[in-house]
Amino acid sequence: MNFALKGPEVCRLVSALLLLPFVIPAQAQNQEARHHARRAQQWMTAKQYGASLPEWEAALKLDSSNAQFHNLYGLSLQETGRDEQARRQFRKAVRLKPSMADAHSNLGYSLWKAGREQEAAASFDAALRLRPGDASLHLARGLLAFDSGDSPLACRHFEHARPWPQDPATLWAVFQACLAGKRTETALTAAAAFPRAASTQALVSRALITFHQPQAAIRFLQEAGKAGALPETPLLLAEALLEAGDPAGALTALDTQKPAGDAFNFTEMELRGSCLLKLERKEEARQQFQLLVEHFPKSPEAYVHATQILLEERNWEEALRILNSGLERLPGDWLLLLRRAVVYRLSGRLREARRDVLDAVARGGDMSLVLAALGQVSGDLSDLATAVASFRQALAETGRPEFQFALACALDRQGEGQAALREMAKAAEQLPTVARVQYEYGKLLQRAGRVQPARQAFERARQLDPGYAPTLYSLSRLYASLGQPALAAQAADEFLAARQRHRPKAEPK
User: Fold this and answer.
1) What is the pLDDT of residues 89-127, one digit of tens each?
2) Residue 173 and residue 161 in contact, taking contact as beta carbons nearer than 8 Å
3) In angstroms, rounded to a whole number, what is the distance separating the alpha carbons of residues 177 and 151?
4) Can you list the domains of the chain with their CATH numbers?
5) Dihedral (C-alpha) 107, 111, 112, 117: value to the nearest 10 degrees?
6) In terms of CB atoms within 10 Å, which of 68, 158, 269, 463 comes out highest?
7) The predicted structure's pLDDT at residue 257
8) Which phi and psi angles does 456 have, rounded to 5°?
């Protein structure tokens, strides 16, 4: 059978419907039950699931021990939005016939849809024990593992799920999971199925570099270049070569294949400075980073690079001067505050460091970086309890909702999901126009099995910030789990486009 899925629910429904004509005659106990079951099948084939419900109920009154009737009745209930009733029917089918793989997988999908990932995994695993070669089951189990953050397990299942569906969200999940699971060749096979557009090639190359696979990125860029030159190729190739430990080769790529465009390109200058620094040409690197500040005075990253050598030299005073000049141009920029906190910490000024970290939170700083900085200030990178206590104290002292959000994130990272959800709900209510807060709230709601509120939170986040890639990816997966492939595909396309734009270039002055 060709499992061309738009999501696990489609595969299981099609599989069940194809089996129905063969199963009913063998299992039904009387002619009248078979008659109602066939009528129900006709309604299901016509996608009139509500109309099929009375027929299934009539069939089950006459033959209540028929596992397949319960299973297919559950599918109709699922399609009409009666999820809990559907799960009861799937469980009855499993009890009556533990060897029915379809009932196990349908139960797994329903539990997954409800956000009950561990129970869903157990049901899919039971189905796979019965049908270990079923590609669609491996695909569903892989997607569930990927959604749960277990990329190595997802990759193992994806390798048994070929041929993969060609929708972008599924291919991206396969690609990302196999990269994280160190199955680079499998990841590249998935990448080869993406459209041969320059933006997509750049996205794949960027991901390979991010996952520390520079040699694969170099090979991919070279092969992609055969199909047509990509504007992004020189910079990406230079970055891959630098990551691969070849700064001289990276400089050559920048010198001989300088991309057309602005006279001053931020990414090119940043890479050139990093290459020079790796080659121990420190003064040339220092000049390159200084040029970044001169030509891109409104880019906080420029000031971060300009202090890199100074931190190695322990020149705290000059580093602070540069960062303070940046904060004069970009008042309250969270990245500059965080960088200044690092300088304060290294120079022993812990009170000022803590103040800047908390100010970075209030300015909407990236929580992972902020928590790491706060851990450093506390002298222990893994001391999340200190972060929780600090954010709780800051909230009590100021009442600012930004610290409510920071507290929720810290509680979540500490594994206190319910407490995190309570705090995040308060933050989302007080910060209704902050996309990142709505996105994190959606994640916690989805993890708690509250699928519809999670969808609403994700959709609010997308409306507030249409280009935030994590929101778009989460929406794509959620739409797929809800059986809405058109919405899932649209969100997946937006996600791929957003990932390509995830490193915005600063404007030259």
Assistant:
1) 999 999 999 999 999 999 999 998 888 888 999 999 999
2) no
3) 4
4) 8-165 (1.25.40.10)
5) -120
6) 158
7) 63
8) -65, -40
